[in-house]
């Protein structure tokens, strides 16, 4: 049996096992809207930990993070910097969001926004921005799966087919089981990918350099620019710092984060998760080691695509057996699929609940809403798959782009949770101006000072909100001023 067939066999067996676990998780609650979306609102600490952790341990972690360490060096540590701020978000926002969701029946971020500001259009705007940010993130997972299959099987499974296989498995169990399927598959896949990450992160430097310490010693002697800021490719402190800020504040606005808050059995469980959440940042460290390991190996012939550094080291340099390569591929696919399941589920719920609900599906029954959500999982996953076939240049840049758009929701959400005097007209205009400004700076104009465009856009957003609050007289009965939020 050829090495490629062994790798494919191990991986297909793994995909079949994940599909079985995901479909077995289907229960009676999965047929109701609250059960399909929020798992009946009784998800405990362990499952919450793995569901929330799946947002970090994605194709971005196995491909993008090593790729940035290989390409830039020390600037890759921006990932650890912003992840250290995520527990603050979970601690501060999670219990409050969960409590409001349980009391008022919220299932999406848009539900909370529309109710607080008494404005369905504002809820729709929140949903549109959320879906627009989620689709690129989902594209990362599908593109990552395709790259993994193609490289690990030496082309036996081409990019398009590998991405399609992962897309079909995820779509099938999310379609059938909703959050219950996501929770149990993420538990299985979380254990798998953590074990693989640490194995590869320690074994590759050991085989190539004699250990992690010796690897960094050789880097310091031969290519020290990779170990200091601004790194090998001149990333400025301005971009590094603003990327951390945009990722931290934008990360707090992900729609799937809010939906997981709603699913928690209590605010106490969320605070427990926030305490242990930094473990996921710690588990990214071995994957960064892999990126640094590739710097000297490919110094004379740089890789055409930095995201493939892990695959090239495992396949071409470190001389692993096909059995190990099969397990590596399975672990990396676990990362891509666990996050992809979360994203496909959330994007479908947000699209149907926040965008279609007030318009083309106004007055639809719960059964029709659940059915539309299931089919939207397939539709949005297919769109992301088609985007993935366009072969995006950088998984990290795709993610940073999504954060830049999503952070424009920050004033809206913070107003709904903590500042009830913010008016709906102010936050809506701010979000629109910030979103348009970000898209222009990202695709048309260069961002001033070389900073992340999301920072300039959110500053403009906040200025517009403040100006509206100060200089525009409120309507006599602005519902947001009479908010029920305590």
TrEMBL record:
Keywords: Membrane, Symport, Transmembrane, Transmembrane helix, Transport. The keyword Disulfide bond does not apply. It is a multi-pass membrane protein. The chain crosses the membrane at residues 6-23, 43-63, 75-94, 122-149, 155-175, 187-205, 237-258, 279-299, 323-352, 372-390, 396-419, 426-447, 453-472. It is found in: Membrane. Coiled coil: none annotated. Gene3D superfamilies: Sodium/glucose cotransporter. InterPro entries: Na/Glc_symporter_sf, Na/solute_symporter, Sodium:Solute_Symporter. Belongs to the sodium:solute symporter (SSF) (TC 2.A.21) family. This is Sodium:solute symporter family protein.
């Amino acid at each position: 049996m050829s090495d490629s067939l062994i790798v494919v066999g191990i991986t297909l067996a793994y995909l079949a096992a994940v599909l079985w676990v995901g479909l077995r998780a289907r229960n009676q609650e999965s047929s109701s809207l609250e059960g399909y979306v929020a798992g009946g609102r009784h998800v405990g600490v362990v499952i919450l930990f793995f569901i929330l952790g799946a947002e970090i341990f994605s194709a971005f972690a196995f491909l993008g993070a090593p790729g940035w360490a290989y390409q830039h060096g020390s600037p890759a540590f921006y990932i650890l910097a912003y992840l250290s701020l995520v527990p603050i978000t979970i601690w501060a926002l999670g219990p409050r969001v969960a409590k409001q969701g349980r009391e008022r029946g919220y299932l999406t971020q848009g539900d909370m926004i529309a109710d607080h500001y008494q404005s369905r259009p504002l809820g729709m705007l929140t949903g549109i921005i959320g879906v627009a940010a989620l689709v690129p993130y989902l594209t990362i997972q599908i593109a990552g799966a395709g790259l993994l299959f193609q490289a690990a099987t030496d082309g036996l499974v081409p990019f398009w087919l590998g991405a399609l296989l992962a897309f079909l498995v995820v779509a099938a169990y999310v379609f059938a089981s909703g959050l219950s399927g996501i929770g149990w598959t993420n538990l299985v896949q979380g254990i798998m990918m953590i074990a693989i990450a640490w194995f590869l992160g320690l074994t590759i430097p050991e085989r190539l350099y004699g250990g992690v310490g010796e690897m960094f010693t050789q880097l310091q002697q031969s290519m020290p620019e990779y170990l200091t800021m601004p790194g090998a490719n001149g990333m400025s402190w301005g971009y590094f710092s603003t990327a951390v800020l945009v990722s931290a504040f934008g990360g707090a606005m992900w729609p799937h984060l809010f939906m997981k808050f709603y699913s928690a059995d209590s605010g106490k469980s969320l605070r427990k998760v926030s305490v242990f959440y930094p473990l996921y940042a710690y588990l990214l460290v071995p994957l960064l080691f892999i990126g640094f390991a590739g710097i000297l190996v490919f110094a004379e012939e740089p890789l055409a695509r930095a995201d493939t550094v892990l695959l090239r080291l495992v396949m071409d340099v470190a001389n692993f057996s096909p059995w190990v390569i099969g397990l590596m591929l399975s672990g990396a696919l676990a990362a891509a699929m666990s996050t992809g399941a979360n994203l496909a589920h959330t994007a479908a719920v947000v699209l149907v609940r926040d965008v279609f609900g007030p318009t083309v599906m106004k007055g639809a029954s719960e059964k029709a809403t659940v059915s539309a959500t299931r089919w939207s999982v397939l539709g949005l996953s297919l769109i992301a798959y088609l985007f993935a076939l366009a072969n995006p240049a950088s998984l990290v840049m795709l993610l940073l782009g999504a954060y830049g758009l999503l952070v424009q929701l920050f004033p809206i959400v913070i107003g709904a949770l903590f500042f009830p005097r913010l008016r709906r007209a102010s936050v809506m205009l701010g979000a629109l101006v910030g979103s348009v400004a970000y898209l222009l700076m990202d695709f048309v104009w260069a961002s001033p000072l070389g900073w992340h465009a999301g920072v300039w856009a959110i500053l403009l957003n906040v200025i517009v909100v403040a100006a509206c609050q100060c200089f525009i007289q409120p309507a006599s009965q602005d519902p947001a001023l009479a908010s029920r939020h305590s």
